[in-house]
Amino acid sequence: MIPAPQLSDIAAAAGTPCYVYDAAAIRASYAALDAAFDGYPHAIHYALKANSSLAIVKLLQSLGSHADANSLGEVDVAMRCGYRPDQIVFTGVGKSAAEIDRAVHLGLLAINVESPGELDRIDQRAIAQDARARVALRVNPDIDARSHPHISTGLKANKFGVPISEAPALFREMAARKGLQPVGAHVHIGSQITTLDPLTKAAEAVVALARDLRSEGVELQHLDMGGGLGISYDGGPVVDPAEYVRALVAATKGSGLKIAIEPGRVLVGPAGVLLTHVVDVKQFAGSKRFVVLDAGMTELMRPALYSAYHRIEPLLRRDGDESPADLVGPICESTDAYARDRMFPPVEVGDLVIVRDVGAYGAVMGHTYLRRPLPPEILSDGSEWRVIRRRQTLDELLALESE
Ligand SMILES: Cc1ncc(COP(=O)(O)O)c(C=O)c1O
Fold it and tell me: Can you give the chain as a three-state secondary structure string?
């Protein structure tokens, strides 16, 4: 946890809104996951989609992780941060021809195939390059992750992967294609999953598939169990990462196959805070209190996008009782609120407020609506801190345009 005086110094130097990440927290989360494998063959592919700022990715690379990319941009970021192509898995529900060409050319560890049509396209494009693309099939096990519907991906109704019942035939097909080398099976049933059961069931389904394939002579190299581990945004119970890993190992070890996982949120989410200043407080007779912050849905989309809950607190607590307040941003949209009717201490204009657990799906989803430049990001490491992305200027924001 970054101490309040350091946060206050950072806000003074970098301005608000700004993101601050705690390097020690990221190291600790990674170490806990890694250690829980207890020597079982595995690779932790950090899901760059959670936070792909170069310094964060580089930090995770330096810890020994591998990478999970969801776009060519993320593949390139991963390589700039030192990952070798054979440490990168590439997932994406609609890969373009250019993306497939580049992924094949780079020789990534696995392109996670999402459909029979894509299987065909990868095969064709690999043959055209005289290459054999390493592929894993993303299966959809029709398991309810019991997460928010917008971040559930493992149900038949979701657009991701192929029904697991179709997988054996598709693996046979892949094994027969000249341009493809099937190396793995992939499953990812959603994000912010807070119970172990769906994750274990998904793993068991993939292990059973691998066993059936083996009996048919299709030998895989790894099982990619995806990401999805939830974090406690509100203090409620979540799955212990070590327990999750032990469950994966227990499900898989009979097969002897290497386990890949693609965690994002659990590695970086709790390590980030968003610092923001109170710019207005208003309350009229018979109406509620509004605390207006200088950060809004442009900096942190999650509340507007998923009604996500974040702990929010003043950096320094003033005397006085808590009372209900809407904690809102400055954007001209009614959905631009971080919290509604939240019990909140008294605050005054100019007070610093911290929004917690924003290290994942925070800055990466930031946008420039209302011509608001992207905020800076800071990495704190013990008593030191440094700017890892400076605040965008308006000129930079407009640089792509002409009148
Ligand atoms: C394919 C894939 N892998 C990994 C992740 C990372 O998930 P999480 O951040 O929940 O661990 C995601 C995010 O939804 C994803 O789509």
Answer: CCCHHHHHHHHHHHCCCEEEEEHHHHHHHHHHHHHHCCCCCEEEEEEHHHCCCHHHHHHHHHCCCEEEECCHHHHHHHHHCCCCHHHEEECCCCCCHHHHHHHHHHCCCEEEECCHHHHHHHHHHHHHCCCCEEEEEEEECCCCCCCCHHHECCCCCCCCCEEHHHHHHHHHHHHHCCCEEEEEEECCCECCECCHHHHHHHHHHHHHHHHHHHHCCCCCCEEECCCCECCCCCCCCCCCHHHHHHHHHHHHHHHCCEEEECCCHHHHHHHEEEEEEEEEEECCCCCCEEEEECCCCCCCCHHHHHCCCCCEEECCCCCCCCEEEEEECCCCCCCCEEEEEEEECCCCCCCEEEEECCCCCCHHHCCCHHHCCCCCEEEEECCEEEEEECCCCHHHHHCCCCC
